[in-house]
Write the structure tokens for this entry.
Amino acid sequence: MKDYVYILTNFTKTVLYIGFSGSLQERVLQHKSGEVDGFTKKYNATTLIYYEEFDDVNEAKAREKAMKKWKRAWKEELINKVNPEWEEIIIV
């Protein structure tokens, strides 16, 4: 079973949200449908622009925790390496 750390943004790309899930597709759909109260719902952060896959849940959780402490510029640099246009990633 895989675990994921992911980054969502809003339409104007002004906010970044970092999350963790064992089911990336399901979790992104929950954010899109507004099921998840809190930051993503308040700021409409529903566009998946980055994710990492892990085989070890503890590694994934540690990565999420570390990334949440990063400066925005570091997050942007990470995203830009794999998705420079910040296009929505569709998980199938």
